[in-house]
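Q: What residues go here?
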């Protein structure tokens, strides 16, 4: 038994001796480490534990995406600048109303409206197709909401009484990217087209009556009244109760009459 233990001890000593010799021949030094290893910079924006900037959060929401798309459709920038024409004033009021309804729908802070306006004003370099794809993903399973949004775009452009080729092409693109059916899209287009074929004869007396201002009213009084009346005609495209109601044959008629009246009184022969 003692002989066996001596043999095992000898084997262990020999193994340790060989290992020590190998170590002395190939010592591990700092120079042997790979100095070309690149450490990727940490993207803090992707950290789920870091609180997102409120503006960035809204940008990625369906409302922020909608605001950016509206910006691509209405180059007048009415919601963020002093409108210079009656049509731009009307569009600005409609966009402001949309943003107000978004804040109410989301039960957001008052700053949400200013954030939406900032998104609207800074979306020139964004890609329309990508925006629509993002909205399609954000509104998955909410087809009627996308349909109502496109209807709002029609109302926004048709408030002038005509639909330019550029506006038409842009809205067609949006509808296609949002995967609307041809039948639904054509129904909206036909409703607005028929509605705008009906001419509204406007005169000084009727214009004052529609806006509810006295003859000789100052331009700023007429403007304030017009903006108030537009705001009162809430489109509420986000309200589920309005998803099946047509804008073209409903509230858009009032919006168009108000715009025509304001446009008439903005001319030299009107209140000005």
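A:
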């Amino acid at each position: 038994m003692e002989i066996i233990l001596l043999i095992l001890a000898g084997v262990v000593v020999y193994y340790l001796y060989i290992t020590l010799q190998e170590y002395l021949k190939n010592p591990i030094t700092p120079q042997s480490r790979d100095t070309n290893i690149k450490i990727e910079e940490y993207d803090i924006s992707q950290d789920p534990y870091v609180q997102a900037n409120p503006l960035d959060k809204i940008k990625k929401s369906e409302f922020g995406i909608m605001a950016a798309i509206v910006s691509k459709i209405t180059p007048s920038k009415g919601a963020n600048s002093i409108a210079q024409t009656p049509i731009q004033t009307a569009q600005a009021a409609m966009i402001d109303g949309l943003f107000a309804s978004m804040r109410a729908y989301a039960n957001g802070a008052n700053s949400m409206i200013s954030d939406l306006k900032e998104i609207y004003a800074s979306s020139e370099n964004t890609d329309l197709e990508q925006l629509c794809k993002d909205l399609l993903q954000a509104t998955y399973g909410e087809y009627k909401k996308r349909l109502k949004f496109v209807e709002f775009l029609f109302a926004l452009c048709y408030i002038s009484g005509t639909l330019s080729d550029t506006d038409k092409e842009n809205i067609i693109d949006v509808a296609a990217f949002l995967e609307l059916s041809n039948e639904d899209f054509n129904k909206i287009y036909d409703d607005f087209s028929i509605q705008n074929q009906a001419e509204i004869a406007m005169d000084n007396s009727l214009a004052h009556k529609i806006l509810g201002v006295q003859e000789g009213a100052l331009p700023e009084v007429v403007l304030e009244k017009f903006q108030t009346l537009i705001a009162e005609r809430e489109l509420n495209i986000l309200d589920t109760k309005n998803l099946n109601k047509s804008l073209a044959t409903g509230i858009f008629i009032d919006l168009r009459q108000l715009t025509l009246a304001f446009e008439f009184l903005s001319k030299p022969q009107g209140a000005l």
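A: Context that may help when evaluating the design: The chain has a mean pLDDT of 81. The radius of gyration is 33 Å.
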